# Entry
Amino acid sequence: MERGHRYDEAFPSGSPPTLDSLYGKGENLKFLIFKSNFAHVGVCTYFNLKLFGELVDMDALQKIRSVADYQFGKGVGKKLFPNAVEIMYSKNTGRIRHIYLKKELLATLRPTTGLFVLTLAGAKRLIHEIKPLRYWVKIQDEAEDFVAKGRSAFAKHVLDADLEIRPQDEVIVVNKKNEVLAVGRALLSGHEMKKFSRGVAVQVRKGVAEKS
# Structure
């Protein structure tokens, strides 16, 4: 139970509703809206019943936060994925696929790696919420427009980079003002990006100047 709400006030019957009592039995339940007068009340260990009756699968929320902590650093999960996120599932596999916040896609969980692929919105949230930021690559002014349009970031244009970056890591490309330019996959380590004068440092997946 969250602080400020008494258990007996939230559940006069003496026990919280079960998953079956809310929706019936079955493994196909992934996300639902449950109308209720309760505010910020914990429902069993699986769901968190929030203001206006939004029901969030807490097991899934903990899972995506744990993945984010592993991928981007301890404590990132809660900041990247607040309680208000909407978790969408693959129709084919039933596994977690997309994470939305206020109808904006933050990240996609890649089934082949079990790690997140960030969107620009997700990258901007990390830039805003995480201090100090990790997995960033800062590039020179002359390459800014080029990368913002979705082109690869070359090592010769790298001003600085997180030394924790390893090849294949998900990274955020920023300019000197720490504004997000693109998201993509590192092809070099952070140390190599700073040292090398040739080769692609980041294979950009999406730039801020690209058309949707």
Observations:
- The mean pLDDT is 80.
- The longest helix spans residues 58-72.
- The CA atoms of residues 94 and 195 lie 44 Å apart.
